[in-house]
């Protein structure tokens, strides 16, 4: 093998040499482009100066400046592309590839070796020295074991014989390790990758993608792809690799701005933000559900998932039943039914006001609406009403121009705002010019009316929603909670607040009535941590992104405070709710994040944990520390943090809610200078970090300390998901600390799965 390695190193050196040459060439092109940009820019500045001196030439110069601006933009873009190529080549130089496959096609006498890396690289004569990992042929590297293999290409399925598979770890141009493997992607490389400590940013997994993950990444057929994957199975990693794959696969028809990822929180958004750039791709758009809602409800405060978690614990069974109903598919269908029966008399029209006086009366708006045939859909009638109102607004503007206040303002127009208003226009008469300027003055004042019409403010959607709720016949077992829910909605409205439960149906109702809310630009929507979304929310997102394919990923076991939904059940529900042709469920049961003892412990916490397959990485048993008083627990916790910090850069203390996190913060504040994370935080510092579990969703830490896992704190089944999610955040070390008896969820476990210790403080 040593000889082989020397041979491979020689090839690496040769390839790097060629990459360096290519880089030099690109650098020359870049320098030339840069000089060009500078000269275009200089030109632009000079023209801008002329513009200031010769006021009469303004209009003409303006056009020229626009043209110059375009030139600058193009030159800059050209420069950016070249800069990116240089960066890519620089990265490729450090580690040009990570895999090699030797294949022999049926009619070929000898095999050929193909090398696989993050991006492709061809030499001057066009020979591929490195293949992009996303090229059709590269799928063999991830999928195939030695022997006959198939791979799909745009021209159909191809057959070949896989003779050899080799993996490399190349750092700064040197082969650190190489392995030959018969497996899909062998364990050695994975061991190496997983044994490392956690970074501030998530890394790509391109060199070690596993077969089942590869299925997710390369699926281009499904309209709805649902991935149920146990904690640490690489769902988030797979999403990001999938995005990179899709961008490559549809290079000409898909760009990163047409992909949106719904992420659980802002910490996560930042944590994953480096993966796509490291694969040479731009990041997709990212949104949290809270951000999505707050954009759609301007001026309102929509409850966040976090506010909701904090409340969720104390729900009665009636409230829970009500919540399930409100969040289900049926409730959304009831809304659709309701809008079918809307007419001029039961739509809640409302006046449009200007400066406190009525501008369009609701009765007039209602009459306009009524003038359109009842055979039309409500949304169509609303749209026509809108157009009619805009026409009326234009007439009102015409009349208003003659009013004294406008005439007075006309006299105040100076040269500066004259040009702003008039632009390049030429007028036939002074009268025409005056009217034009007058109209623009009035338009400015009436802008709020225009906006109100545009945004459908002539329908009071909140009253409409109340009327919808009042129209429903609910079953007796939730009727009290239901009345309370309706009252509460009105009360919150006065405070400009909307609960998460109402946000989705409200938006849906608004869209159904006004025909708005759709966003057809997006081609792919990804939702991570899907178990935190209700079916109603998912349905709404499907409605809002109607042209998009959906990839939903999550782990039903990581539901916090909620019963687990069987993934097959969920797929069935979604398939009917989404009304799609090609739906597919992929299940990932192998967990990579944690050492085997941690994964086995976490798996034992949940009922069908035996399905979880731990990756064979050794480490210490999870430790449970029993203390008998708040004072001892505090002292132990401090001691523990100090010890863990000796081995790891970050230690996370995870709690079940914010109140507990604050408690921990007070305990550790003076001795450890910890950071208490909140909803709005975007980055994770080093040292001790404290947060409630819902903020740690999707994240991982070298060392996790679960705070107070006592019987009192985690009394029942309802807490399983929380405990499981806490335990599964740990990569290398897991410690749970308890004051008083430990939760029955833990005491029921096989005692070989953890070590138990009373206070760690020296006596
Ligand atoms: N094929 C792989 N090669 C190398 N590392 C991997 C691979 N798959 C997963 N990992 C690593 O395992 C860890 C967990 O992955 P990831 O966060 O994507 O899992 P997840 O399923 O989204 O987890 P969770 O649901 O618990 O948040 C990460 O550190 C990731 O880099």
From TrEMBL:
Pfam families: UvrD-helicase, UvrD_C_2
GO biological process: recombinational repair
Stretches assigned to coiled coil: 383-416
Record's keyword annotation contains ATP-binding: yes
GO CC terms: cytosol
DNA repair among keywords: no
InterPro entries: DNA_helicase_UvrD/REP (IPR000212), HelD_bacillota (IPR048228), P-loop_NTPase (IPR027417), UvrD-like_ATP-bd (IPR014016), UvrD-like_helicase_C (IPR027785)
Molecular function GO terms recorded: 3'-5' DNA helicase activity; ATP binding; DNA binding; hydrolase activity
Entry superkingdom: Bacteria
Sequence ranges assigned to domain UvrD-like helicase ATP-binding in this UniProt record: 208-595
Positions bound to ATP: 229-236
Transmembrane segments: none
Keywords: ATP-binding, Coiled coil, Helicase, Hydrolase, Nucleotide-binding
Name of this protein: UvrD/REP helicase family protein
Lineage: Bacteria, Bacillati, Bacillota, Bacilli, Lactobacillales
């Amino acid at each position: 093998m040593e000889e082989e390695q020397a041979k491979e190193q020689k090839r690496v050196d040769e390839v790097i040499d060629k990459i360096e040459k290519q880089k030099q060439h690109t650098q020359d092109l870049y320098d030339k482009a840069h000089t060009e940009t500078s000269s275009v820019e200089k030109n632009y500045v000079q023209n801008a100066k002329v513009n200031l001196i010769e006021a009469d030439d303004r209009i003409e110069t303006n056009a020229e400046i626009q043209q110059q601006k375009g030139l600058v933009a193009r030159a800059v873009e050209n420069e950016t592309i070249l800069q990116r190529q240089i960066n890519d080549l620089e990265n490729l130089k450090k580690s040009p590839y990570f895999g090699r496959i030797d294949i022999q096609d049926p009619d070929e006498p000898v095999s050929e070796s193909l090398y696989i890396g993050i991006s492709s690289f061809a030499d001057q004569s066009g020979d591929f020295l490195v293949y992009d990992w996303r090229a059709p042929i590269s799928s063999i590297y991830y999928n195939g074991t030695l022997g006959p293999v198939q791979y799909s290409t745009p021209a159909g399925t191809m057959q070949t014989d896989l003779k050899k598979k080799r993996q490399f770890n190349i750092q700064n141009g040197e082969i650190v390790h190489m392995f030959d493997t018969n497996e899909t992607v062998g364990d050695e490389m994975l061991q190496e990758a997983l044994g490392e400590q956690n970074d501030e940013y998530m890394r790509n997994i391109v060199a070690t993608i596993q077969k089942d993950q590869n299925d997710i990444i390369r699926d281009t057929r499904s309209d709805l792809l649902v991935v149920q994957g146990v904690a640490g199975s690489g769902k988030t990693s797979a999403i990001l690799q999938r995005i990179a794959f899709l961008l490559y696969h549809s290079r000409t028809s898909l760009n990163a701005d047409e992909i949106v990822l719904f992420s659980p929180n802002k910490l996560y958004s930042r944590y994953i933000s480096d993966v796509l750039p490291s694969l040479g791709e731009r990041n997709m758009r990212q949104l949290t559900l809270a951000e999505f809602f707050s954009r759609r409800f301007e001026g309102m405060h929509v409850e966040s998932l976090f506010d909701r978690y904090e409340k969720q614990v104390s729900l009665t069974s009636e409230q829970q039943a009500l919540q399930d109903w409100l969040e289900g598919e049926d409730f959304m269908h009831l809304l659709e039914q309701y809008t079918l029966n809307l007419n001029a008399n039961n739509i809640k029209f409302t006046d449009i006001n200007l400066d406190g006086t009525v501008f369009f009366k609701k009765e007039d708006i209602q009459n306009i609406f009524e003038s359109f045939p009842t055979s039309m859909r409500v949304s169509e009638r609303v749209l026509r009403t809108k157009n009619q109102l805009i026409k009326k607004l234009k007439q009102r503007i015409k009349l208003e121009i003659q009013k004294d206040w406008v005439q007075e303002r006309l006299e105040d127009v100076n040269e500066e705002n004259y040009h702003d208003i008039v632009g390049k226009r030429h007028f036939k008469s002074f009268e025409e010019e005056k009217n034009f300027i007058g109209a623009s003055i009035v338009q400015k004042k009436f802008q709020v009316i225009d906006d109100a019409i545009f945004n459908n403010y002539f329908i009071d959607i909140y009253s409409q929603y109340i009327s919808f709720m009042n129209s429903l016949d609910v079953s007796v077992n939730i009727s009290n909670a239901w009345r309370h829910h309706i009252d509460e909605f009105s009360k919150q409205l006065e405070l400009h607040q909307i609960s998460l439960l109402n946000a989705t149906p409200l938006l849906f109702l608004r869209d159904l009535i006004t025909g708005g809310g759709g966003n057809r630009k997006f081609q792919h929507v990804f939702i991570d941590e899907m178990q935190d979304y209700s079916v109603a929310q998912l349905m709404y997102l499907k409605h809002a992104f109607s042209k998009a394919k959906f990839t939903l990923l999550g782990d039903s076991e990581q539901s916090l405070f909620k019963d687990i939904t069987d993934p097959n059940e969920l797929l069935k529900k979604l398939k009917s709710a989404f009304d799609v042709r090609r739906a597919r469920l992929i299940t990932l049961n192998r967990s990579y994040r944690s050492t085997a003892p941690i994964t086995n412990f976490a798996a034992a916490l949940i009922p069908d944990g035996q399905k979880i397959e731990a990756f064979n990485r050794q480490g210490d048993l999870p430790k449970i520390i029993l203390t008998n008083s708040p004072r001892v627990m505090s002292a132990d916790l401090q001691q523990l943090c100090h010890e863990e910090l000796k081995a790891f850069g970050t230690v996370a203390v995870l709690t079940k809610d914010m109140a507990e996190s604050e408690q921990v913060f007070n305990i550790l504040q003076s001795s450890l200078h910890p950071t208490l994370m909140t909803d709005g935080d975007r980055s994770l510092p080093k040292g001790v970090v404290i947060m409630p579990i819902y903020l740690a969703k999707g994240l991982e830490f070298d060392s996790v300390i679960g705070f107070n896992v006592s019987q009192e704190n985690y009394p029942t089944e309802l807490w399983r998901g929380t405990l499981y999610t806490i335990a599964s955040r740990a990569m290398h070390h897991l410690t749970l600390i308890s004051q008083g008896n430990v939760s029955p969820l833990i005491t029921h476990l096989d005692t070989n799965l953890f070590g138990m210790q009373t206070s760690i403080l020296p006596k």
